[in-house]
Every structure is written in C-alpha cells, then in structure tokens.
Amino acid sequence: MTIPPYRPHRLLAALLALALAGGFATGCDFLDPTEVENPRTTDDDLASANQPVRSLLPGLRAQFSRAIGSTVVATAVATDDYSINGTGLGGNDMDFPELVTPNTAVINSTGATLGIYWNLQELRALSDFVLNDIAPNDEEASNALLAEAHYYRGMAFLLQAENFTAVPAEANEAPASAATLFARAQDDLQTVLSLDEGGPFALPAEAALARLARGTGDTGTAATLASAVLTSAPSFLFQQAFDEQNLVNAPHLYIVTRALKELQPLPRLDFLDPKYTARDAGIAVAKAEEMHLILAEVALDAGQPEAARGHLRDALALVAERSTTAFADDDPRFDNDLNPRPRTSDIAIAFEPGGDFVEGLVLDRPCAEGVACIETPTVSGTSVTEAQLTAADAAELTRLLYLMRQEILLLEGRRLHDLGLRFPMMLREIEQNPTIAEGDPGTEMVIPAYIPPGNELDLYTPVEIYDEDGNTIEPEITLLHDMNRVLATERGLLITNPQVP
Amino acid sequence: MKHWYTAFMVLTVLLLAVTTVAAQEQGTLTGTVTEAGSSQGLPGVNVVIPALNRGAATTIDGVYTLADLPAGTYEVSARFVGFRPSTQEVTIVAGAEATLNFELQEDFMQMDQTVVTGTGLSTERRRLSADVSVISTRDIEESPVASVDQLLQGRVSGSSVRMQSAQPGQGALINFRGITSAFADQTPVIYVDGVRVDNNTGTSFSFGGESTSALSELLTNDIERIEITKGGAASTLYGSDAANGVIQIFTRRGQEGQPVITLRTEQGIDLPNTQFLLDTGFSFASNVEDPDDPDFGRANFIRDEILRTAHTQNYYTGVSGGTSDVTYNVSGRVQQSGGVQPNNASTLYALRGNVETKLANTLNVSFSGAYTRSNFSRINNGTAIADPLTAFEVGDAKFFSGASTLDEALDLFLLPTIKEGVDRFTLSTTASYTPSELFSSRLTGGIDSRSNEQRRRNPAAADALTGNDGGLLTRFDRNFNAVTLEYQGTISYPREGRLTSDFTFGAQGFREETSTIFGEGETFALPGTEDFGEAGSIIADETRSQIFNGGFFFREQLGIDDRLFLNAGIRFDGNSAFGDDVGLQAYPSVGAAYNISDENFWRGRVQSIFSELKLRAAYGATGKFPTPFARDVTFQANAFRGEAAPRFDNPGNADLRPERTATLEAGFETSLLRDVFGLNITGYRSITSDAIFSVPEQPVTGRGAQLRNVGEIRNRGIELDADLRIFNRRNVRWSLGAAYGYVENAITDMGGAADFNVSTTVSAQQRVSEGRPVGAWRATTPFDSNGDGLLDASEFRFTDTTPFPDHTGSISTRLTLYNRLNLFALADWATGAEVFDWGSHWAQFNGLERAPRPTRFDTEGNEVGKFSTAAAGTALLQSGDYLKLREIAISYRLPERLIEQANLRSAQLSLTGRNLLTFARQDFVDPELAGLTSGGGLQLGGAQSITLSPPRQLRLSLEVTL
Questions:
Q1: What percent of the residues of chain A are helix, what percent strand, and what percent coil, each to the nearest 5?
Q2: Under CATH, which number does the domain A55-491 receive?
C-alpha cells in the first residue's frame, strides 16, 4: 500500500471533518431529542402547587376587575348614560337597544374591557374551579380565602341576574333564569358572612345582599341589610382596584386615554365626567350612598315620602363629603359627525321637551394643555339639591330617586338594571351549548315598552350648538327624553316592580 | 429518537475515518461548454465524471478543468438547468491533457434535468410522477429582486405571492395550490442546502397591522437553483411539515480552477408608486380656500411632501475557485436604500461561503454558511392612528396631531421611530458517501439562527399623536433557532437492464425553538434616552415555543425500459406537538410516470408533432403539525397589583394531531413541433382532513378556544406552463412563456363547529363556513327590505368572493440578439380576490366619501343619506384583479475587445426595472398587496389601510469578472 503524499487540503479536510463532528456533537445537546417544556403552568404543574387556593385567588381578583370594568362599559353605552363616538366599540349599535344581538361586538367580546358576558362567566367559572375542584384538596385554604372566593362568585351571579334574562351556569345545561341566578348569588354571599363574619368581605357581601334584595323586590331584607351596613360603616365604600399597567380601569380607557373618547356622556351628566381620571382608579362596587337610596326606595314603596326624603337627604350629605379631582381634560366632546357636543358652561339643558332649562350641568372643555380646568367627583356626585328634595311630592321623589341613582352610581353598572333592559347572552354560548337555541330565554335583548325607539335614549336637539369658531349659537338644548320621569311614571319603583324573569 | 441520532453520530465518525486514497497515474481533462447554435460559453455548467465522483463547474467563459484524474475511459456528463444534459466518453491518459467540448441544447421540457426535492435522491424529471418546479440560475441572475419571495412572483404556476407594502423588512404571503388550513400559516417550508430555515412571516411587533418577515433575508445572491414542490405527492417525504409545499434553495458551489473574482456594482432609484393614493382633492388641504393659509393649494401633499425618490446602491464581491479536491465560493454584499417613505431607510450586509472537499473517492464533505445583518426603519402603517399615510390621505393628520398646518403635522407624525436589526446565521454541512454505484448516502446537518430586535420610540414631543406624554420605548426581541439533521441512503440495483430500482431510506428530524421578549418603558424624565432602566414604569412579557419533529421514510422507484417509472413511498412522523393519545403518523405516496414518446410506436409522424410526451399521475399525503403546546391544559398568570393572577388558558386536547392533506394529481408534459412549443399541465384535487379549527369552548366554562381536528377542506385546480420558441436563429432568439393556475377552495365539512371569522374588519369578515372557501368574505350588504326597490336596510351576507385570487398567471418573453444583448420581460396577473379598503372607512369618519357608498332610504321611501361604511361593507370591498408589468431586464455583454483591453474575463452591463406598471379595476387599494398581516396563524391578506405599493425600481449594474 502506498502512503499518499501530504497535501495541504488534507489538513483542511480534516478540520472540516472535525468541525462537522463538533457541530453534530454540540447539536446533540441542543437537539436533545423529543423533550420540550411548556413554559406555562399545565394541569400537572398546578397539581403540585403548595397552596393552590391562595395562589389562584389573585386570578379571581383580577377577573373581578375585568368583570366590573366590562359591566360598567357595556351598561354605560347601552343606556342613556353614555353614547358611542367612533368605531372603537365595534360601531354604535349599542346605542340602539333594538340593534343589540348576541353577535353585537360588545356582547360577543371576550376582551377585558368590553366583554360583559364573557367576563362574568369567566369569573363564575374560575370561582367554581377554585371552590369545587381545588379547595376540597387544599387543607390550607382558610375560611377567609374561601369567603373571598364565594364573594366573587356571588357577585358574578348577582351581576348576571341584574343584566341578563338567563345564562347557563354549567356546560351543556339549559340557562338558569335571573331568579335562579339571584338565588345562587344569595347563597354565595350568605356563605361569605357565615365563613368570615368580621372579614374584609363581610360588609361588601352584606351591601350586595341589600342590592340583591332590592333586585328581587324583598323590601324587608333590603331595608334591614342597608341599615346594617350603614350602622357598621356610615361612609362605607368598597372599590374594586385596577392595575395602572396591566389591567386598567375599563371606562377610563374610553373616557380619558383613547384619542377618540368613545364614551360621550348624556349632556346633563357632563359635570360628572370623567369620573375615573387615573388608569388604576377603583370602581365602587358597594357604597353607603346606595344603602341610603335603597332605604329611600323601601320608604317610597311603603308610602312614606317623608322618610324617603330623609334618606335622600342623607345620601346628599354623604355625596357632599366625597372627594373630587381636578383634571386637565383634553376631550373636545365630538360626536360621530365631528359636531362638538355641549362643552361650555353657558349651555342650559332641558331634561325633556317642555322641561325647565337647567344651568351648571356642562363644564368648559377641552382644557388648555396641562391646565386642570375641570373638577369632577371620583366617588359620587349629583345635581339634585336639598331644595329639590324639599319641594318634591312623592311622584317627583321617585323621579329624583332614579336621577340620584343615575348620577351617584354613574359608571358603576346599575343603570341597565334600573331601566329594565336585559342583554342577550353572547353568540358563542348559543352556538356552542347544544341545549340553547336562538329565541330561547336569554338569547334576545329585552326592551321594556317604555324605552324609546332607535337611539333616542341618547339624543338631544339641536346638534349644531357652536359655529365654526366655537362660539355658542344654541345655548339651550333639549334632551328627547327624561328617562327618570319615564321610569317613575311607567315602571314605578324597581323594588315594587323588579321585573325578574 | 435518541437512538437514531446516536447512530448518525457514529456513522459520521466512521465516514470521516475513510480518508485514504490510493495514488494513481493521473491526467487532466479540459474543455468548453457552449450553448448550441452559439459560440458563447455557458458559465456554471456542472461537468461530472460519475465513476470518479469528480466534477467541476465551468468558468464565466464556459471552460472547465478536471485535473489529477486517474487514467482510464470514462463517461463525462455536462448538466445545466434549462438545458438538455450531454454525456460523452473520454479516455484519460496519464500525464496528458484531454479535451472534451460540449454543446448544450436549450430544453423547454427539461426532462433530463435532475431534482432532489421530494425524491430522496437526484432524479431526472422524466422519472417524476409529480411536478417539481425549478427556478434556474438564469432566472435568478436576470431579476432585480433581493429576496427569494419576490423572485417567486410570476415564476411558479399555481402560486399566489403577494407583497405587503413599500416598507423594508417585509416578506410576501406565499401560497401554493390553495388554502389548506383554517388555522395555520400557508407559507411553504424552506430548506437552504438541506437545512430547514425560519419562514415566519410575523417576526416583529405589528405597529398598525404590518409586521416584518424572516423571508426578507433569504437573499438571491449565490443561489444555484431553487426547487419547489407545491404539496401533495412531491412533498410527502417531508411529512408533517409539508402540506404548504417545500422550497429548496441550493447555494452556489465553487468551481475547480484559478480563482475567479466577480465584482458587481448596482446603482438605482426607487420611485414611489402613488397610483392608489387619491391625495389630490381628497385630504383636508383641498378644502382650504384661504390663499394665505399655509396649506392652500397643497392638495398633493403626500406625493409632494411625504414621498420621495430614493437612491439605492448594492455592491457584491465574490471569489470562487479550487483544486480537484477542494473548491470554494465566498462572497460579500452590501446594500443600502433610502426608502421612498420617510423613516424607511435600510442597510444590509451579507456574507456567504461554500467549501467542498473530497476526502476520498467515495466521500465528499461540503460546508456552506451565511451571515446576514439587516437594519431598517419602518413607520406605523395600517390601523394605527400614528400612521402618516392614512392620516394624511383621509384627512386626520391635523386633527390627530393637533397641528395647525400640514407641515407641522408631518413633523409630528415623523417623530415616532421604529427601528429593527436582524442577525442571521445559516450553516449547513453535508457528507456524501458513495462507496459504489449501487449505494450512495448523505448526511446533512445544519442550523438556522435568527435574532431580531425591534425598538419603537414615541418621544414625549409626539404626545399629541401617541398619547405618551412622558415618552414610550417599546422593544420586541425574537430569537429563532432550528437544527436539522437528515440521513438518507439509496440502493440502486439493478441499475441496468429493462428493470431498474432505486430504494431510498432515511430519517430526518428538526427542532425549533422560538422565544420572544416584549418590553415597554413609559415616562422618561429627559429626552434622548433609549434605556429602559430610566423609564418611570416598565412592563415586560415573553413567549417561548419548542417543537421537535422526527421521522423516517422509505421510497422505492422502479424503472421499466427507462420509460415507465413507478414509485411508492411512506414517511412516519412523530412530533412533540401531537396530543398524548396520538402516535406516529404515516404519509404514503404512490405515482407513475410514463414517457410514452420513447416508445417505438411513437416514432414517425406522431413524433414530428409531439416530440416528447410524458404522462404522470401521483397520490400522496402530507401533514401540517399543530401549534406547539396547543395540546396541553394550561393556566396563565398576568401581573395584577403586584401579584401574579392566574386564569384559564388553553383547554387542552390529548387527541390533537396534524392536518392531513392528501392530493391526487395527474398531468402531462409535452414538447411539440421539435421543441417549438412546450406544455406542462397538471390537474389536482387535494383533501385536507383533520383540519384544525380553533373551536371555542362554551363561555360558561370560562375557557377560550381549543385547536381541534374537526374540519375538511378541499382544493382542486389546474396548473399550466407553456413555452413558445418563436425564433431560434444564430443571432436572434426569441421565446414566450406563460403560466396559469386556477384553484377552487371550499370547506367541505365543519365537523359541527360553528362558523367563525379568520379576520374581521369593521364591516366585512373573512369567514369560515361550510360549503364556502376559507376566509370567504361576508360583508354588511345594503338591501331592500320592503320590496319598494330602494335600499333601506343592511345585514351581513356572503359576497361570493375571497381575499385571495383564484386565477393567477404570468407571461414572459426573452429576446437574445447576437448572443450579447438580452431582453427579458415578465408580467403577472391575478383575478378573483377582493380587498377591504380600510382607508375609505377612516375617510368616512372625517366626513369624506372616498369609495362611493349607496344611498340609503327609509321604509317610507325617503332618502336619508348614504349608507355608513359599517352598514355597507360591500362598498369597501374593492376588486383584487390586477396585471403588473413586474420586470424588464436588459443586459449587454461587453465586447471581448474591450474586455481584453481592461484585462477582464467578462463584463456585463444590465438595466432592470421592477413593478413598472399596474393595471387594476379600481383606484383605492393596490390589489396585489397582502396588506394587514399580524403574523402567526392563517394570514389571508386582503385588507389594507392606506398602504404604499412597492416602489418602481430602476437599477443599473455592472458586473465584471477578473
């Protein structure tokens, strides 16, 4: 055998061979066969958690924020509280109750700020998961932790009962009616009290039970619980917190952050807007004012206008104690045709055709850049005065009660329930649940006969108020309807006529 | 899987150990390869002596040299894409130089051209039962494009290749043979020298709907050829990854001989194409009536003030050469462009090296590597408020910026910046071991590693526009790594006689890891900083994905009388994304090719008309694996007030399996009238079963949607390629080419799942619904509700159109004069698509009617104005039909006299143009553009805001070789 002479390219070849082998060798670790690791928590991972209930509770807290935030936004735009500017909410169908269907963007949304149906169901389902699947095997799940979880589930049921006719509470099962949902909410909220009587969720649960009793027309329970809350904490305020970066106050997004300010208030509510000027501003879930208003409603129901007047005065006094904030609002208050809506303090508003023109309801905006030119309430505000209360008869007191509820509880998710409107469930639920068909209870928007047609809930005349230079040419504007008068005359008190399906 | 991997390692070491070669008496072979009918040498032709496992490529003059050849008589073959191969015998005498010249005949049918994609071994086209498209060196060299995706436009029948916009960093939406999935990206998988590379079309954060693409760094320089299979039987050996088709890129190897240095300089201009900007009389400027207003008369503000002609430059240096045992090809490229929009400049640096060495007569090892660095700036585009083009076109610019003049507004719009840098390494190593003619084998391993960093900065001064009064810095990093390893062996026995057999077996695996990190810092005290640490608040997020796919395959190919070829194969695949209850997946294929014109009965008159005719039919299955980890039940926590707040994430599916696309195809290739006319027709029908839909859970469960194999999708269509040689004289050669594709797509079974949208605009949905194409448009449609003949209501209705075309085609022509002057032109067209015109929707918001909308009446018959864009989605769906004059290239080879004086081997001057003319049926959107794509998942394109078309490009280049 002849040994081949040395040639330089043999060295190169050897180096290449070495590189090849080295590449494969390092590739071996890198390629390391079939093993992959899911970077998220799997069900196996969860099974090994130390205190799973404690670990999952922050998820419920965050979901409660999504549920409250999206409930507030959806109910604000579907009622006379706010109308929609621009396309950020999927168009303005929500301003037209007749156009709201299971497929309307806000209803069929799974988003954190819009999807009322989705977020309430997720809150309930996640609570179910924690209470039914996890808690029984978690020895370290304290009563306080369990009470908190029951509170969230109870609130999910309560908000569903107030805003929907019927929604399913189990997969593949027929929807539960609003009455059933109220009952389930009651069970959970009472469990909160029994598990942790003096705990942080006891008073909120009690206040929610008072609200629930109003919703079901149980005047005695409503009055007892409302009084109990006020006795425990006369200035009671329970707010759900948001996160400045990761889960912002949902209505704040549409009244402050976004360039188009999609939520535009009814002109007579202008002085209350924006209520949430910080991204992490809390939304009141329960507060003492509402207890006073419930007591007033019970008194009116019982034919005791003087007692009601007293409770309404208590509410006014409490409102006066609540804080306000100065804010540099840059909202030019445009409508969909780029007409400025009322935005100067020289505007007077009649609540309905033929009504008196009321001044002082509209603030001057937009502010000069960086100048905090407006001041708005952060918890409660109202235009109703002591004098109005004093002068009112029983019928007017009912109107004023609704008006105070509308103003004091603005952007807190109560108005849809007060108006008697009910949302349909989201299309996805109807499509995926084999027991639900279109047309079944809960699948259509419920609109009482006294609700005006089209988007008249939000309308006023005239719409061209200013000239091209911004000078006021129409200082008096008239709303098409005073829905509080309509409610007072057509519906009567909610506690008297709860319309629970 | 570990076992076969270890086996590869052992085999590799064994192969590398065989390095001893017996010394022999040696001689040299040299010669010139010319094009038939011409004295012009053909560069890049492979001249090989199979028996010796030796080969060389011809130089720029067409000259090849093979030195150190053992004495003996050998068959020598010359092969070049687009020409018929030629084989001659030569005798090498020790110590002497033999000369052997070749004349290659241009070959429309390309029956003898070899391909490797989908066959496992180098196979002549005459043996293929399913069509494989090839893009040749010539196609690549004459095109002025920079990246492979652009090169495909108009060059592959049955394909739809749509660019996004004029912005740098973008990649095309590519689709072969229809949409096969309702959930997955349709981009074909791409291999470079056998290594699977990143083909993701959404590699950055989307600011307004457009994201960047990994296709943009797949450069066209130093590519020898590209082979394309469009799914179906030809792709079966690629298993669970090949339903979209396979693009194989082969880079250029060095050639034996003295070093050849190639220098190329290219200077050019990009001209903005304003065809689809109404601009004139449309934005607010046209409403300015006061002659003293700074905006008076500036109705063409976009054209005059925002867009501009950009200069581009491109420099290339390559060195190629080698000895009989080692060849090399090394090159570098630098490219710079200013961009036709502001904040759109780009630079690119690319290095590539190929080294091939012969370790023994039986063993070759080759190495190829590339590094690319790309830097570019982009602007917001699409649905972002800060998108300057949209804002100025539809009149929002002053409103959103709060500026009092258009100039001030523009200054503000250009303050936000989006910069991106990409680093990409692609390495491939192949060892080929051929101990005898009866057995050959190949081991390939390699890596593709790509990382990009995108930084969006909204300075505080742009507050009016962005809402970030303290400034904002957003950073998005994506890191991609893929390793590919493949072994395949072929036993060829018997090789001669009436019956021949090639049995191929092998295994292939790849692993991909992708991670992204998103960070955002807000509120900076002082201007100038781009440091997260200085932000008042910081949020961050990340994603990680890993996937492993491994499989083994077998394929048998029988040849009968060298005219009838039968093949059958199967691949078995395992994949880490399959559900726990899903085992190995099998993908079978069978096929037959019959070269009927080789039969004796074909001779005579028939052959004088049909010079060649091949019939073929094939059936094959391919797969598309599901998203990594989509099988698992997961929970995901988000930050909430200092706590980690978990919620339900993925519902989980233990039965999750790949989508399976089974394709039956048949066709023929024929050459008529002695190569005057060539025709290649294929008809196919493919059924994607186990189609994956993202099926929503019942909301009552609180859980989102889960990928489930529930659907069935059908595609059927026809593809046609035709070539006509009009003149073929010594000094004048002129040919025409045409390609056509038609595909009909339909969802044949929803598996009980409810209809859903792939994508939604304000008034039109890309809908998935049984009996209709994937993504069929469903738009709000004005209609007459009470029979009075007047439109008074609106509802969502299907429009019977799709966001993608169903007819596509191209025509090309090539003229060669005196073997010196070449002219090439290419136009491509598409019909059948509709594109949603977001710009006209935004215009309505400003009270402007950009696209006409129908008049609305109430039920009493009173006119109540126009339908809104929300209620008249059909008015915003614009025709997607187009014809584009895509390329014109003129090249001139400088006379030898001049070249010799300058001491050069060759010199060529080229003038090329691209995107020169567009014909469309409407003026609102460029119908070709894919428009808004968010990356990840199925992207059908078909929705655009005000988006600038890719610029008209003019390039002048000079290439010299030393």
A1: 50, 10, 40
A2: 1.25.40.390
